[in-house]
UniProtKB/TrEMBL annotation:
SUPFAM superfamilies: Acetyl-CoA synthetase-like. The keyword Ligase applies. Residues 419-492 form the AMP-binding enzyme C-terminal domain. It comes from Aromatoleum evansii (Azoarcus evansii). This is AMP-binding protein. The keyword Protein biosynthesis does not apply. Keywords: Ligase.
Length: 512
């Protein structure tokens, strides 16, 4: 299989004059971008960063970030991206854990880098005159370019993503060139991307969705429109101005665009393909998006950093909540909760843990320096995802949540997602999250946290749930009205914050 450097060269050779990357007023063709990639690769090599080294990158989605990613692929450097909002202790941890040779950062991260004890002794490359840098990124463009072909092969490590670490220290996920390329090829096929498409590059590059958007556009000589920080109004303006043809976002970003006052007046007709991942999309939002965009393709993509794609549903509107069936490079099963064997299969409609075959072309081979995590998740050649779900009578997969999020009330296993899907359809509900709070009698009680769209009270919501087919034991026993649902930077609900009481009450809500 080709490595990623040679993959980039394919597009340079096929479409040298096609616009490849856009960042504000900057527009680079593939030939121009290749020149900058080669220059940055040469600059890194001159600084002593080379094959097999980790480069910790703390940047937003800007042209410098995308260029660094490709430069590392040519040079054989392991790009190791980190959330640009990272705190000093997170930077320290990831620097020490990865053994990074150098650090690249921007002004938004300068304060955290300055407070990082680990960064002080490292080569620090600053983008846009970031304070505290020992070398300016711009200087990388001034020296001799790499001048030779790609220095990495398909079996070399391309990047290392860090998991979100919501339940402990982040885990490094090393991924090889061949695994990354296989994932990007499957992404192109499963989303029916055509040559020359254009995507909004807003999903962060420290997240697998952002990386996949970048790589997939290169495979089809497409255009990647950088958006450093998400803003719904700016996103809509870019979609119109750049004639964006596909979107691949977490549900939260779709929600925010639909809610923006500019949505009705912007021309979004060029967007013909919608994809979402990273978190479940509740029925109400899915139906609103279908009505607003009328897409040709509406893809529910289910996967992870470790194994990019588990399952694909190319018609999300036909069966809301359904993750579909095994993707091109995957085999999936649902095994009984608590089982360690991949052969302990759950029956149809029985909720269990979702697992996937590690022999798949997109699958990683194990966590970075974490044998404890490997022992927990890698068993008998299968990756135990920690996600719960079930197959329906048609053999389609439904993802119901995380094993750790499962609510056990009165001996019954209750999935928060089932309840959230029902409540999301109420016209007074803007967003909803469900969690299990400790209860002396039941062990845990079901509590719904509601961000309101209009005046609504607990009694009305309870009556609404009673009128649906939601089983009585799943019905929320309490409703808490909040100003915002706590989420991670990529839109995942942080139920642990709800359980801990880390939220702001909506003081305008009334009880009935």
């Amino acid at each position: 299989m080709l490595d990623l450097g040679r993959t980039f060269l394919q597009s340079v050779e096929r479409s040298p004059d096609a616009v490849a990357v856009v960042d504000g007023p900057l527009r680079l063709t593939y030939a121009q971008w290749h020149g900058r990639v080669q220059a940055v690769a040469g600059g890194l090599r001159a600084l002593g960063v080379g094959h097999g080294d980790h480069l910790l990158v703390v940047l937003q989605n800007r042209w410098e970030m995308t260029t660094l990613h490709w430069a590392c692929q040519f040079l054989g450097v392991i790009v190791t991206p980190l959330n640009w909002r990272a705190k000093p202790d997170e930077i320290d941890y990831c620097l020490a854990d990865s053994g990074a040779k150098a650090l690249v950062f921007e002004p938004a991260a300068a304060e955290a880098v300055a407070a990082s004890s680990g960064a002080g002794g490292l080569l620090r490359i600053g983008v846009q005159h970031a304070e505290g840098a020992s070398v300016a990124f711009e200087s990388l463009l001034e020296g001799p370019a790499l001048g030779v072909g790609p220095q990495a092969g398909a079996d070399d490590v391309s990047l290392m993503l860090y998991t979100s670490g919501t339940t402990g220290k982040p885990k490094g996920v090393p991924r090889r060139h061949r695994q990354e390329r296989a994932a990007a090829l499957a992404h192109v096929a499963q989303n029916l991307y055509r040559r020359g498409e254009c995507t909004l590059g807003v999903m962060p590059m420290y997240h697998t969705m952002g990386v996949r958007s970048l790589l997939s556009m290169a495979l089809i000589d497409g255009r990647f429109v950088c958006m450093p920080k998400f803003d719904a109004g700016t996103a809509l303006a870019l979609i119109e101005a750049e004639r964006v043809s596909n979107l691949y976002l977490v549900p939260t970003l779709y929600h925010d665009m639909l809610a923006h006052p500019d949505f009705a007046r912007r021309n979004i007709s060029t967007v013909r393909k919608l994809g979402f991942a990273g978190a479940p999309m509740h029925d109400a939002l899915l139906m609103r998006l279908d009505e607003a965009f009328r897409p040709e393709l509406f893809v529910n993509h289910y996967g992870s950093s470790e194994v990019y794609t588990f399952a694909i549903n190319q018609d999300a509107r036909a069966k809301p909540g359904c993750a579909g069936r095994a993707a091109l490079n995957a085999r999936i099963r649902v095994v009984a909760l608590g089982a360690d064997s991949p052969d302990a299969l759950a029956a149809p409609f029985e909720e269990g843990q979702i697992i996937t075959d590690l022999a798949g072309d997109e699958a990683f081979e194990g966590y970075w320096k974490r044998p404890d995590a490997d022992a927990k998740s890698l068993k008998h050649g299968w990756y135990f995802t920690g996600d719960t779900g079930y197959f329906d009578a048609d053999g389609d997969l439904f993802v119901s949540g995380r094993v750790d999020d499962m609510i056990i009330s009165g001996g019954e296993n209750i999935s928060p997602v089932d309840i959230e899907s029902v409540l999301s359809l109420h016209p007074g509900v803007d967003e909803v999250a469900v969690a299990g709070l400790q209860d002396e009698r039941w062990g845990q009680r079901v509590v719904a946290f509601i961000k309101r769209k209009q005046e609504i009270g607990a009694e009305a919501l309870d009556q609404y749930c009673r009128a649906t087919d939601l089983a009585n034991f799943k019905r929320p026993r309490d409703y808490v009205f909040v100003r915002e649902i706590p989420k991670s930077p990529v839109g995942k609900i942080l139920r642990r914050k709800l359980v801990a009481g880390d939220y702001e009450i909506d003081a305008t809500a009334t009880l009935d």
